[in-house]
Recover the amino acids of this structure.
């Protein structure tokens, strides 16, 4: 990530707080208009027109009460309830970039909203008559005194039938320390200690939320544009598919992807690296792919793993999980894993799963 993504406090507050204030003012204006409508309705029915001030005044009050009650009722039509995405994760992992990406896609973004106010924000969106159809809320440790209310708010949203998803931005300790040092800013939780102390405290605080996340994105080796591409791939579509898959090739010598849901090892296949004429190329090359899939077990693995993924995907859909990251690894992430990832992604796409292919380590050698 860049220095911009490690701005955990003032700059991001300033960038998004205006958006949140605009919502409050706009919604407040609508709420104020409704009681006025009730008073306007009452005026033609007053004693000035009929000579019965007592009777007509009661009628006016009833009308005003009906308008007020209608604007405040929680029983809005289901179609009017906005979609909700909660963005959270480690400070410095790119939450601001993820939020700005959704804002560019037309989402209404509120940064650092206290978790207890999330249901209220959704209710305001539901009363906007479709003007606020998608809301993204950034929740982080800057609001840590309110953070304990998050689980209660999520339970409240579930009872209301709100479609909500949690996006968690993850990153390695080394990458986070480097980003904070590059902008010369303290970690929000480090206090009198070191940056690593703040990171450790934050990981512990966010542990349960990370486990509940629908989408985990590891930004350790991503730049701003790559993170935006991942967010676009997940949220840019006009209609949400049932399941989205990211198929990622990687090299074991560079470490396991921390955001992988499933990991498969291609090191049981012969390595094209040891074939001189294939060594300079990658798994995207037709000759390399042909070499890989002509090896014993390669095609059988593809067929059986695709079948296993169909079984897993059906379970994910039943459980409401919308995103899955499938990591395919080999030694260097250049030949075997790349070729297998391409074939597997094509197989998933043919079966109706919206699929994105990422080659994490290709080109690192």
């Amino acid at each position: 990530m860049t220095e911009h993504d490690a701005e955990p406090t003032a700059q991001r507050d300033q960038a998004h707080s205006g958006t949140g204030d605009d919502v409050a003012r706009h919604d407040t204006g609508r709420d104020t208009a409704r009681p006025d409508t009730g008073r306007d309705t009452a005026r033609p029915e007053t004693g000035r027109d009929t000579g019965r001030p007592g009777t007509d005044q009661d009628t006016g009050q009833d009308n005003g009460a009906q308008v007020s009650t209608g604007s405040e009722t929680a029983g809005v039509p289901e179609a009017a309830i906005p979609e909700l995405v909660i963005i959270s994760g480690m400070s410095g992992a790119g939450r601001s970039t993820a939020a700005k990406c959704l804002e560019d896609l037309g989402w209404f973004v509120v940064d650092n909203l206290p978790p207890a106010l999330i249901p209220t924000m959704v209710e305001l969106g539901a009363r906007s008559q479709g003007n606020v159809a998608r809301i993204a809320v950034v929740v982080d440790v800057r609001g840590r005194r309110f953070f304990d209310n998050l689980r209660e708010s999520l339970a409240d949203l579930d009872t209301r039938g709100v479609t909500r998803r949690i996006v968690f931005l993850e990153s390695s300790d080394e990458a986070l320390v480097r980003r904070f040092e590059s902008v010369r800013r303290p970690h929000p939780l480090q206090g009198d200690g070191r940056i690593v102390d703040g990171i450790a405290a934050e990981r512990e605080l966010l542990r349960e939320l990370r486990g509940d996340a629908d989408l985990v994105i590891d930004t350790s080796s991503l730049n701003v544009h790559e993170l935006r591409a991942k967010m676009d791939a997940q949220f840019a579509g006009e209609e949400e598919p049932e399941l989205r898959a990211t198929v990622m090739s990687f090299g074991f010598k560079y470490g396991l992807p921390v955001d992988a849901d499933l990991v498969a090892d291609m090191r049981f296949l012969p390595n094209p690296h040891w074939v001189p004429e294939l060594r300079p190329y990658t798994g995207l090359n037709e000759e390399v792919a042909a070499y890989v899939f002509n090896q014993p077990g390669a095609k059988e693995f593809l067929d059986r793993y695709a079948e296993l993924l169909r079984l897993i995907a059906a379970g994910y859909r039943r459980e409401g999980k919308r995103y899955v990251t499938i990591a395919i690894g080999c030694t260097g992430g250049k030949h075997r894993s790349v070729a297998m990832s391409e074939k597997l992604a094509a197989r998933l796409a043919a079966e109706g799963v919206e699929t994105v292919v990422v080659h994490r380590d290709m080109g690192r050698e």
Notes: Confidence is low (pLDDT under 50) at residues 1-77. Strands lie at 83-89, 108-111, 134-138, 164-170, 215-218, 244-251, 262-265, 323-330, 354-359. The two ends are 21 Å apart (CA to CA).
